[in-house]
Amino acid sequence: MVVQKFGGTSVADPTAIRRLIEIVRTARARDGRGPAVVVSAMSRVTDTLLGIAAAAGSDQLNEALPRVEELRERHLAAARDLVDEPEQVPLITQIADHFDQLTGIVRALAVLREVSPRTLDVVASMGELLSSRIVAAALTAAGVPAEWVDARCAIITNDDHTRAAPLTSETNAALGRTVVPILDSGRVPVLGGFIGATLDGHTSTLGRGGSDYSGALVGAGIGASEIQIWTDVDGMLSADPRIVKAPRLVSQLSFAEAAELAYFGAKVLHPSTILPAVERNIPVRILNSWKPEGAGTLITASRSNGGYEREEYYIQPASESDGPGRATRDAHTTTRIVRLTGLASKRDVTVIDITSSRMLMAYGFLRRVFEVFERFRTAVDMVTTSEVSVSITVDDRRHLDAIVEAISEFAEVSVEREMALLCAVGDVLRDVPELSAKVIGVLEEVPLRMISQAASRRNITVVLRQSDLPHAMERLHEEFFR
Ligand code: ASP
Ligand code: MG
Hints:
The chain has 482 residues and is an alpha/beta fold. Helix content is 40%, strand content 20%. It is built from 14 helices and 17 strands. Strands 3-5-2-1-8-10-11-9 form an 8-stranded mixed beta sheet, sandwiched between helices. Strands 13-14-12-15-17-16 form a 6-stranded antiparallel beta sheet. A hairpin with an 8-residue loop joins strand 10 and strand 11 (297-300). The structure holds aspartic acid and magnesium ion. Residues 7-8, 40-41, 46, 127, 193-194, 208-211 line the site of aspartic acid (ASP).
């Protein structure tokens, strides 16, 4: 049985929800039971709710209340469109109750003129409470028997409001009490993602974008065979489509590869949110709810258990072969090329060079350098060293001047802006040692400022001028992803 999580654009309006219904119906027909459904708030609703709370907290009721009414209308319109009488009546009542509560809170915030994290969670939770109510009723109305689950009874968290951490064993027990019996009875449980409650029953949220996390928690808790993340793109791409003309869809990658790519800015899904699934070895698939027949991108704990065959990835360059893709093992006459998993990049990177001919390799020097970054709470992305210098990249420039001044007290510092990080990722880098050299070789005419391959050996990262990034990325893509 699968867990299907639908993001905000996949529940944005009645048209999107009708697509969702067909996707659920198909999974149900295939598996004979389930699926368990987790939904985000309708698109942009969480942003609006947080804006409403902020406006109310600064006593701007005339701004907050009309926005509440707009949200009310949007949800009521969807409910009326998707669910007919007589089932429409209880749904409309539930929606009205949520909005009456919201209006009450908004008025109270305006009086108190402050918004605590705990109250903010109550406001933010409305989006998912509403969308899940509507989706559950719409499924039932369309002949797919579904039942709404209050996520606050199913996902149990600590009390770190606005970014609460789930309590695993409590959550698993709660899922066993709420979601599992519905599945066992042959119906489809529907719950809002992103939200939960603390042990003493206060509404909490898992942090922005948290419904993927909810999907993974539900999947891990009920032992699903697959967790599907339904969104509005085909899956993970081999490179940023704004930079590379024709990126490929990555059909499968390992969790570690996904983590490396996300760290360097690949969009779609943050791997840490699917950790509960990966730990239980449950595959996670990213799918496009506009094109449900697509294969999407499959993320598994390790790529090697899913069809990664080394030989398959050797192809000859077109110039030397009589047909693309012909495998060969003759190293003398051919260049072996291996396909990587993905490219990621980060713009607006600043390189800081720190030079000290006397001191550098003395013990304690690097500690002094990094203490400065720590003092100014600035995270470092990449570090390389030589006998006389250390180069460090940062992307947060807020405290750059102060950092430079502090380091200047014991070393020479120079700063180069408008640089970029380009990162090639693939577990295959571990298996094919010559590949790193190949990656660098492909970039031969591009001046590289820094090169690094970390211990994981599944990525090789270079720093280059931002203006060279598009060309460099195209070159790598052409060579390793064609
Ligand atoms: N609705 C929440 C947000 O916008 C959670 C989610 O959609 O994942 O952050
Ligand atoms: Mg989302």
